[in-house]
Design goal:
heterotrimer, A alpha/beta, B mainly alpha, C mainly alpha, A: 6-stranded mixed beta sheet, 10 strands, globular, C: mainly alpha
Chain lengths: ~260, ~290, ~280
């Protein structure tokens, strides 16, 4: 397993946002965590990426226990993420945004930087090439010198993905990547996510939009009120009574069951 | 001896508390560190000086000076900060603009009036003193204590007992939501500025009385103490500012009395730094977020 | 070149102040560049000034040995207080650093070997003017080179969005502490250079007012590149000289300039921002 959580919990004052969640994400493929609004998806993501600390439970990544590892060290270990509310560095250029994604891979010494030694120049040239490649992956290669804040909404979302991909992560975490997108943009996004997975990066995404996830993912985990209520292939999730109930409410589920022949 | 020191400390602390109350209100509700605040303190003292020199009795000069200081505060807030508030500028901008303004104001006052220390007209308060249990308290000190108690009481009533106070507290908690709920935040900001400025002005009059020394830069050293009090008491916490103000007064008097008078400010700031390191929410906790 | 020597002699103090204030503005710039409102620069400067003055006066060490050592005490101080202090944000960090500066001022006032309220005088005027400007030029060069590297990108990323920067692998705590130390080095150097050019230092040279003046250098100039804060420092240092005929009113003008600059030039006078990467040349 590339990423595994066991009995992962996060309590806020009086509220259990994530409740003993077990998650097992194998190497490769596209995996989704879904659930209605307020099910604890984003909190789970923050726990995985290290922006929040768990109240109880363990997280392991690539065979290493990372429960207590700070977020920057998780990024260095090969985890990258995007945010539900866009967080590009608005006043930096598109290229510089992508270059920050390579931060963990650059390790020039201060003297090398100040004296512009060949080692630094080579590393910087290499980083720019990688950043350009990441921009090309999302189709922003022609906008490299534009200010990131000036990009259209959808382009900013794609820039976040490029920034996360620039460092060549093993696991890409996408927090509601389709939020605010129209159907055409969603289709393009699905193609992009497939391309990323085809390159060998494991993708874990959080969504509340079921249809978007169903056609895309190899496995889904469904959360409701912080608990895992389902884990398995998307086809089975669609038929699971617990999942249906969580999504459309108990009464509607009963009615639906009654109508079924 | 110790009891007398404690009494003196309490008295000094009462004026610190009075000064800090307006500061914590302004900081807590309007979310800006308004460095012009110290100027209202200077302004209050000078206004009272001029009024009493013109023959006004103290019971008229004190409220008049406080109200005028409040009006100056409202005007300066409007001139300097409305534009930044509307643009949603960061705290750095408001800090800087009020810094520039206060430097100009102090320098302007000094250029106009000179840096000399002025004294209130003699005989403003009867020079008597009460003595009981070996403690001595002058009539001026009794007046200061009474005025502090009255003003603190008024402020607590305004904040806790009126609809206006409710609106102010709502704005302190969530300015955006308060605006949505139909609270006229701009008018409320002006009102908070007025109340804060009036408190600072009253503090200036009373400290001027206590030490009988009025000069343009008197607000500046007070501002540094104001920082200590509002941080130790917790941002926007009225009760906390009250206790922290009294505490600071007592600590300063005791340090001056038993260690060295040169160290009293250093001790106050050491207290500030220690509180920030160990209890960033202030000694008494707070309802407001500390990550400004 | 006699006229040049005359000019230098007349404006010796101004020339020193321009160089030293330039270094102080850069000391402010490095912490603002990572989004920290840390106002300890005057305190660091004081530590550099006092420690270097003691090395010269009490130990009689030569200036070339004193100057590099003048950074040691400020950096040690930064490391000692950095841990708990850098957990604070925004205005709280500003207040805490001002408070630390006031504590130090209380120490200078009350420790005999530091001269108390009289300060220290008779410090050898051993810092040549060219050295001050050489240090300033070196500081600008280093900050420029670092600013254009991955470190500069990480710093700007931190300032714009700490959470996103953290998720990109930027070690926020380490960067905060490192920039605080860099700030301490620059201010410590400025303190030693200024102490050894003016022969006298006193506790009030490093209190609240100098602290906010240093902040105004960086804000007036802007923080888009290392040139901007130096420009701001030079303007605010020259302004009182230019306004000298106005005597009393010049401090008023100084304050008014800050007000107008913040209200109407929110990104500083020099809003131009340095690119954060080495341009790969036309071919790439």
């Amino acid at each position: 397993m590339l990423l595994q959580t066991s009995a992962l919990s996060r309590h806020f004052a009086g509220l259990v946002a994530v409740d003993r969640v077990d998650l097992a994400i194998p190497q490769g493929g596209i995996h989704a965590v879904i659930g209605p609004n307020g099910a604890g998806k984003t909190t789970l993501f923050n726990l995985i990426s290290g922006l929040a600390t768990p109240t109880a439970g363990q997280i392991s990544f690539a065979g290493q226990d990372i429960t207590l590892l700070p977020a920057d060290r998780r990024a260095q270990a090969g985890m990258a993420r995007t945010f539900q509310n866009i967080r590009v560095f608005a006043t930096m250029s598109v290229l510089d945004n992508a270059l920050t994604g390579l931060h963990a891979r650059l390790s020039a010494s201060l003297p090398a930087i100040i004296a512009r030694l060949p080692g630094f120049r080579r590393a910087e040239r290499d980083a720019i090439a990688r950043a350009q490649a990441a921009l090309a992956l999302v189709g922003l290669q022609d906008r490299a010198y534009t200010q990131a804040g000036a990009l259209a909404y959808g382009d900013q979302r794609r820039l976040e993905i490029a920034r996360a991909m620039a460092g060549g992560p093993r696991l890409l975490l996408l927090d509601e990547p389709a939020a605010g997108m129209n159907p055409a943009e969603r289709a393009a996004l699905a193609t992009l996510i497939r391309a990323i997975a085809a390159q060998g990066t494991t993708v874990l995404l959080v969504e509340h939009d079921m249809p978007f996830v169903m056609g895309l993912s190899d496995s889904v985990t469904v959360l409701n009120f912080g608990r895992r209520i389902f884990a398995g292939p998307p086809g089975a999730a669609r038929q699971d009574p617990g999942v249906i109930e969580a999504y459309i409410g108990h009464k509607a589920a009963v009615r639906l069951a009654g109508q079924a022949p | 001896m110790l009891a007398q020191q404690l009494l003196n400390g309490l008295l000094l602390g009462a004026t610190y508390a009075l000064f800090a109350l307006g500061f914590t209100l302004m900081f807590g509700v309007l979310r800006v560190v308004n460095l012009t605040y110290g100027f209202y303190f200077t302004a209050g003292a000078f206004l009272a000086l001029w009024l009493t020199q013109a023959g006004a009795p103290l019971f008229l000069a004190l409220p008049a000076a406080a109200i005028a200081s409040g009006l100056i505060a409202t005007l300066l807030d409007w001139l300097l900060l409305t534009r930044l508030r509307r643009a949603g500028a960061d705290e750095l901008a408001s800090l800087m603009v009020t810094l520039g303004a206060v430097l100009a104001l102090y320098a302007g006052m000094t250029a106009w009036l000179g840096p000399d220390i002025r004294r209130l007209p003699p005989g403003l308060i009867a020079a008597g003193a009460l003595e009981a249990f070996g403690l001595r308290i002058t009539l001026a000190q009794i007046l200061i204590l009474a005025a502090c108690a009255l003003l603190v009481g008024l402020l607590l009533w305004l904040m806790r007992g009126t609809r206006l106070g409710l609106a102010i507290r709502a704005m302190a908690e969530r300015p955006d939501t308060a605006a949505l709920m139909g609270i006229a935040t701009a008018r409320l900001a002006a009102l908070v500025s007025f109340v804060s400025g009036a408190l600072a002005g009253a503090g200036g009059v009373l400290i001027g009385l206590n030490f009988n020394a009025i000069h343009p830069y008197m607000g500046e050293s007070m501002m540094l103490r104001g920082f200590v009090v509002i941080v130790v008491g917790g941002l926007g916490n009225i009760f906390g500012a009250l206790v922290a103000g009294l505490l600071l007064g007592i600590i300063e008097v005791l340090t001056a009395g038993y260690i060295s008078s040169g160290l009293k400010e250093a001790v106050a700031f050491a207290l500030l730094v220690l509180v920030l390191w160990t209890r960033p929410a202030g000694l008494f906790g707070t309802t407001l977020a500390r990550k400004a | 070149m006699a006229w040049f020597d005359d000019l230098l002699f007349t404006y010796q103090n101004l020339a020193v102040a321009l160089g030293v204030n330039g270094l102080l503005a850069l000391s402010m710039y490095v912490v603002l560049a990572v989004g920290q409102l840390s106002l300890g620069q005057a305190a660091f400067m004081g530590l550099g000034a006092y420690s270097s003055a003691l090395m010269s006066l009490q130990l009689g060490w030569p200036f070339w040995a004193v100057l590099p050592l003048s950074c040691v005490v400020p950096v040690l101080f930064a490391l000692a207080v950095g841990g708990p202090t850098l957990r604070l944000n925004g205005v709280y960090l500003a207040i805490a650093t001002i408070g630390l500066g006031e504590v130090l001022r209380g120490v200078y006032l009350n420790v005999d070997v530091l001269g108390g309220a009289m300060g220290l005088s008779g410090i050898p005027e051993a810092a040549p003017l060219w050295l001050i400007y050489a240090m300033l030029a070196l500081a600008v060069l280093v900050l420029w080179q670092v600013g254009k590297s991955g470190i500069g990108r990480a710093m700007e990323a931190m300032r714009l969005d700490e959470t996103a920067a953290l998720s990109m692998g930027v070690n926020i705590r380490r960067y905060r502490l490192a920039t605080l130390c860099a700030s301490a080095v620059l201010a410590g150097l400025a303190g030693a250079l200024s102490a050894h050019s003016t022969d006298f230092i006193g506790p009030n040279d490093f209190g609240f007012e100098p602290a906010v003046t240093i902040l105004s250098f960086a804000l007036l100039g802007g923080i888009g590149s290392p040139f901007a804060p130096v420009l701001g420092a030079w303007l605010l240092t020259l302004l009182p000289e230019v306004l000298r005929p106005l005597a009393d009113v010049r401090l008023v003008m100084n304050g008014a300039v800050i007000v107008v600059a913040v209200l109407f030039l929110p990104r500083g006078l020099l809003a131009w921002r340095m690119p954060r990467h080495v341009r790969p040349g036309r071919a790439a």
